[in-house]
Amino acid sequence: SNSSRLSRMSFSGEDGRAAQARPAPGAGGDRPMVTFARRTHSGRYVSYSRDDLDSELANSDYHVHIPVTPDNQPMDPAISARVEEQYVSNSLFTGGFNSVTRAHLMDKVIDSEASHPQMAGSKGSSCAVNGCDGKVMSDERGQDILPCECDFKICAECFGDAVKNAGALCPGCKEPYKATEMEDLVGGGADGGARPTLSLPPPPGGAPASRMERRLSIVRSQKAMTRSQTGDWDHNRWLFETKGTYGYGNAIWPKENDADNGNGGSGGGLGGTDGQPAEFTSKPWRPLTRKLKIPAGILSPYRLLVLIRLAVLGLFLTWRIKHKNEDAMWLWGMSVVCELWFGFSWILDQLPKLCPVNRATDLAVLKDKFETPTPSNPNGRSDLPGLDIYVSTADPEKEPPLTTANTILSILAADYPVEKLSCYVSDDGGALLTFEAMAEAASFANMWVPFCRKHGIEPRNPESYFSLKRDPYKNKVRSDFVKDRRRIKREYDEFKVRINGLPDSIRRRSDAYHAREEIKAMKRQREAALDDAVETVKIAKATWMADGTHWPGTWIQPSAEHTRGDHAGIIQVMLKPPSDDPLYGGDGEEGRPLDFTDIDIRLPMLVYVSREKRPGYDHNKKAGAMNALVRSSAVMSNGPFILNLDCDHYVYNSQAFREGMCFMMDRGGDRIAYVQFPQRFEGIDPSDRYANHNTVFFDVNMRALDGLMGPVYVGTGCLFRRVALYGFDPPRSTEHGGCCSCCFPKKRKIKSTVSSGTSEETRALRMADFDDEEMNMSTFPKRFGNSNFLINSIPIAEFQGRPLADHPGVKNGRPPGALTVPRDLLDASTVAEAISVISCWYEDKTEWGQRVGWIYGSVTEDVVTGYRMHNRGWKSVYCVTKRDAFRGTAPINLTDRLHQVLRWATGSVEIFFSRNNALLASRRMKCLQRIAYLNVGIYPFTSIFLIVYCFLPALSLFSGQFIVKELDVTFLTYLLVITLTLCMLAVLEIKWSGINLEEWWRNEQFWLIGGTSAHLAAVLQGLLKVIAGIEISFTLTSKSGADDENDEYADLYIVKWTSLMIPPIVIMMVNLIAIAVGFSRTIYSEIPQWSKLLGGVFFSFWVLAHLYPFAKGLMGRRGRTPTIVFVWSGLLAITISLLWVAINPPSQNSQIGGSFQFP
């Protein structure tokens, strides 16, 4: 039966009162038991094994251990693991707090047919033995394995029973089997041979090693060799014990006497003239990355101008303080205070820009080092570390499933070793729509991914690829490309129609099943009530899956335990882990009408995850969802590196993962916590009215920070080192002291021990390079939770994330070839453990969200998480690729853009009032890096002074005074020098960053628009939250919309009213009226003060020029604003001006304008 086939499984009672998945005896204490069951249409679980049915009838939980006898021989562990993986990949795992972890075997995941053998619910033949509905054994291509020549279809369990109990006779033709061993029927490799076993030492006692024990043995086997007494890499011992040689590429070479075989020592072949391999003498060691410094002809003048402007600002502010305007002290005082703050803010923004750098990667070197065949790795298996990719989504209504599906497809088709890549989709809404959309994407990937590999498609997002406006046939030389592209385009159009039709399909399916359930309930009620009056039966309207069972997540019509905030944890392996060796396609295979001969058709592992949610728990929004993915992925794949993407950010450069890995695997890469990629956007209007591209931040500020300790984390497109997310220190930490520590470093190494006086909140976890006496893993359950599997995976992730020790300068490295071992098969207990770590209670009394994982407590959890890593001494790198690594979407509507900025600014205010304030940073953070983080928390407060300064020109025009007593030469000279230095700095920034002048000007404009609206609201919201604990939310009310659906930028012209618009509107109206009033008073004045008028008008126009995009957004679609609006606006301004003159008429003035004198 299945229970004898699947290891460590038991049945839990149907009453629902059974405890969570518990460890089975002999399983090491960390292997939870799992029940494989089928769920009936009524929602009741029925066990899938005969032994479990017996236990269910007894209504009790027990284990039956049958001794090993000649008639009861256990199945080969390798074969049973392969069979178990097949069941795991076809099961929907659910569970959570006070509930049983169940594996629901699914006949189908989506209504359409699944053809890829890796996909959950993939089609397969059923066993022909009476009373058995198991699946026939299949190979990696999904083809049936039939042990008899009569092609009688039989599953693995029935085949084993026939061999043991029926005399090895086929149940179909009654002839004896020619092959009775499972190994003869099931091949492991691409060539049909047996699966290669791990070359690891057997566990004591001869017992089969568990999955985690095998992983740990890889680390332990290298530990004695890789660590010396000084804590550094023991090069000599490694060279002696492994016969290794340093050189270009893989560091393990053949023996010296083998190098000259067949050449008589003549220096030919592999051997050099000095007896060393030719690769060692001809190919010197080369780094994976290099730093490209900014030319001195640009950077030196840039720094000089910063110093000049700093000195001029100091002199100007000193002059302003000394020369008061006694006629308008209130005006002078406000202007001086604002100018002092602007100067301080400019210093905070400018100082971190003194050390900008550019970087470049060498993908050819990466391939040579990690994927070149060597004597120890003849097949050329990739030695690159594993990579887990997280895609987060929460609401299918706001985040269309088609967009998420395209992002998934671009990830699955990325150019990275398939067996090392895993994709996890976090559905925080628990919606069946997202679940089935991901299943449809996995099905379509069966054709899309091999098509991309065959023809080198870029980008590998089908929606973007088919929307390209350039010639798709450029540089395509294969004769079948046109035919393949036409077929794929048709398949994608059908895929889009299926995705768009999923909401209606799910609704119709649920209505049909619900009607059937109501009819059954009424029938049962009539039979029970006989002739009595029968009341109408009310049944909760459930949401039904394609296999005719209840969806365990959020229902369309919410019910108890099926709402967005109350549902079980769900994990579904959409695509099971691929085989270790390439699996090449053929010509016109079933399910693949295209010719994929010599094309690897494997797909990366794809997992759907929806964490458990229950009322009364704080789920911490996106940060909580990301931490759930960190834990579940650590249990299932444990990639040492993590890349997170928003659902609307797709892979635009298929080699982006390799470019990021160059930094992690290079010398010194073990100290890099994350590699941040710039955010690039599509669908933005050509003029970029609201600075949506944000190029000044991504191409100026981030490049400048890269010259310090690295850029800040911006929430998406970031490659993390897993152990850095776990809260550990970097291998070699240093302290920085003094304000000039960036230019003149004065470093001091930190001791590996932690002083007892260090605060528990600020003290970082310390790995101590995995020396057992210092690691103190006994404290890990308090920090990471009670999952032994998760805790044991931590040293493995650290070891696998180390760079290659192929150079004496590489410290804390790993031997080459350590990651070429095959991947472990996925078993049920592993997925059950993943269900446990995503439960709502798991983080209770742990440090998740405090010092481990994504940090809680701020709406900008990304900045706080990056700050914590820099504060512990980690570095980060900014990776700008020639072809954009990722692309996404951004709101082009004015109101949506303002609310986006509001959210960012609110997070910055929260950071300023928290213990994450850069003023409290540790000595491990460089001074200029601390200033940059300080600016992140302070910049919203500039809005207070900015709004006051925007009103000053109007107040000056209304009162007839100015911020200075008179426009003398000194004031004008200071103003001119400050303006010129600002322009020259902008020009040089454009030179070394690569942006253009228009982008810089758009950024300046939106700085004022956001500063007078969203930033002020964020400061108000933050102060109320800190002082009074009151939270304010700004609601949207749509006033008008664009009715042209064919316009790509229709959303740009939609006008939605929000209270954030009030301050900029008031500023514009007041300045316009003030200009009219100022002109009127000057013209009718007996002694007109033209100098003061020009000063006020100049600054008013400065304000209005910055607010021009805002005013344009208020007018809606171009050309649709009626002319009468402009006419009445002019008349209104004239009327107000005349009214002011009537209220305060000039005395004894007979000449309009008086005697005009230019100042």
UniProtKB/TrEMBL annotation:
Residues at which Mn(2+) binds: K622, D646
Keyword Manganese: no
Gene3D superfamilies, per the entry: Spore Coat Polysaccharide Biosynthesis Protein SpsA, Chain A, Zinc/RING finger domain, C3HC4 (zinc finger)
GO terms under cellular component: Golgi membrane
Broad class of the protein's primary localization: Golgi
Transmembrane region(s): 932-959, 971-988, 1065-1084, 1090-1111, 1123-1143
InterPro entries the UniProt entry points to: Cellulose_synth, Nucleotide-diphossugar_trans, Znf_RING/FYVE/PHD
Active site per the UniProt annotation: D428, D862
Subcellular location: Golgi apparatus membrane
Sequence positions that bind UDP-alpha-D-glucose: S392, K398, E399, D428, K621
Superkingdom to which the source organism belongs: Eukaryota
Keyword annotations of the record: Cell wall biogenesis/degradation, Glycosyltransferase, Golgi apparatus, Membrane, Transferase, Transmembrane, Transmembrane helix
Gene Ontology BP term (one): plant-type cell wall organization or biogenesis
Family the UniProt entry places it in: Belongs to the glycosyltransferase 2 family. Plant cellulose synthase-like D subfamily.
Name of the molecule in the record: Cellulose synthase-like protein D2
Source organism per UniProt: Aegilops tauschii subsp. strangulata
